[in-house]
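thread from #wetlab-drylab

HS: before we spend reagent money on co-crystallization trials with adenosine-5'-diphosphate, can we at least see a predicted complex? here's what I'd submit
DV: go for it
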Amino acid sequence: MHNLSDPIISLNGLGPKAQDKLNNIGIYNLEHLLFHLPFRYQNKTKFTSLDDAQVGAEILVQLTIDRIEEVATRQRQLLCYLSDENNRTLLLRFFHFNQYHKQQLVRGDIIQCFGEIKIGREGLEMHHPEYRLISKGQANLLETTLSPVYPLTGNLHQAQLKKWINIALKTLKNSSLSDNFENLAKNSMPTLKQALETLHHPKEGENLEQIAEFKHISQQRLIIEELCAHQLSLLKLKNERKSKISNIFKISKLLSKRLSENLGFKLTNAQQRSVDEINTDLALNHPMLRLLQGDVGSGKTIVAVFACLQAIENGFQTAIMAPTEILANQHLHGFSNYLEPLGVKVAFLTGSQNTTERAEQLDAIQSGKAQVIIGTHALFQESVKFNKLGLVVIDEQHKFGVHQRLSLVQKAHNTPHQLVMTATPIPRSLTMSAYADLDTSIIDELPPGRMPIKTIALGSERKDEVVQKIKQVCKDNNQVYWVCTLIEESEVLRAESATKTHQYLQENLPGLSIVLIHGRMNKDEKSKIMHQFANGEINVLVATTVIEVGVNVPNASLMVIENSERLGLAQLHQLRGRVGRGADASICILMYQSPLSANATERIDILRQTNDGFLIANKDLELRGPGEILGTQQTGIADMKIANIVRDGYLLKQVRFYSEQFLQLDEGKQYALIMRWITADKSQYANT
Ligand code: ADP
Ligand code: MG
């Protein structure tokens, strides 16, 4: 008899190779096997009639063998024709088989098959089904309960995992397992032991539909527990931060008042609320870490400027980091416009400056002459010494690598306050789960007077109509972006395809100034072109996706996106947000190459229907899943044992509730929960 603490190597038939593979996914002992949960279930509890068979569904059928045939196409195949009493047919196809298999299949025999229904030239098919020859006395495939399907790892087989997990389950029967939720959720949820047993082997009489949809109370219990573990590890980070000492900023209204007077517009309520929330944080003696979220064009920059002013009035420097050189340039102009009239000195640092320029800027930063420093990742470099860094503002584009911004923080005087701005909104369920360690301010309204952008989808064959539209827009003295999105392997090919479009537009739009900008150009060239475009000297800017972030040219009112089907929702929304910034009605034309995939059609439809970035962010999460959106930085959230924040978002309120209860418990209990659900290397990330 085994114990739950036995190493997996003690299991029969589990050798060192399998051990390594299981160790890699955090399974070291029998107890860990219990938490390797089915990601779906097969339903072999009933036979399905061929009449009800749906393509793509996995079904169990019982039929008669009519004919067996071996065909020598490019790949040798064994075909087995089956039928039911009403002469409806199903074809089994085997690509791997031997003569023994073939001889076993006998005309007139009864066969049971379980597999996915496909459609072929001759009707319904199954490829390599699981099957039993009932006439030969083989055991029935019919089960009384759903069959678990486990996520596989390495080249381990489903049957092996099933066998080992079943031993762990047997061991569980006679063991006790510490239940982290027992005292928290008195009687409102099944015990851990019950939940695990139900999920590995749903019993007869359980609500199988609920289980198939992951809505069963046993699943909800474990989902909540897992999400709690993740959230708890983030909340612990947050508490740790709140116990660190930082510089207290005495909130002064002197510069803010002067800025407000110069502004020419009034902050929206949402902007003012964000400024207030930031000021409250800055006045405390522990470091702020606040995520400022807002839709494209909602006016995040000015909120950051107000935060800078507080640093300045308290004698601290602010570093503002942008993800690209173009955006850093844009911020330089944006921030300088607001700050220089107030007598604030702004320094600029990027990788492309020459030695003299650089030395000059470095000196201004080190001596403290520069109060605000704007730059790219160049700000991270070792040679950069700040005089008294107190605030760090990070513009995150839409790569939310929030957890790896640390080297800048280490250059600071005490732990600095940090403000992270996102380019587009993050779905609420992601904010609650992946960013629970941050405080959040949300700008959920646009400045008044914005005209909604009209979005149109056009097939690529209608390019000439687009050209006519451009003529009209330019006649009204407005400007145009034309974005080439061809995703080529190399920047060379990308530039080449943009060059072709550029030529085409020049030929078809004589008399207009049409200029090309792409990633292969040098920095000076690029920033010169952006300047000219901002000043209205260029009518049509043909660009690769380099213009994606941050560019602000209110006079541009038409955005054309070529091959829009190749871009994700967030990226398209971000691009579209480059127009609609001025007083004129703006249009975004999404050009596409037919035929569109179902997914691309859905993306384009969503963009046509709404300009609401928060709604779009949610759809994006549904379509792509958290893994794609978060990237590799936070695989913990994307790669959970049972929870899926898209499917389970509705449970996050309860997760929050229980996480907070856990924070009141002793450290040992908190770690027990975290260690149970977050495997070693993931918990390491949680502790950094
Ligand atoms: P984003 O949130 O996309 O970074 P920006 O900060 O670039 O947006 O602001 C977009 C534009 O809106 C800028 O031209 C800015 O001057 C303007 N703006 C910001 N706030 C307001 C406001 N309250 N009223 C009017 N215009 C505003
Ligand atoms: Mg911006």
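DV: Residues 254-443 form a domain with the Rossmann fold fold (CATH 3.40.50.300).
HS: ok that's useful, forwarding to the group
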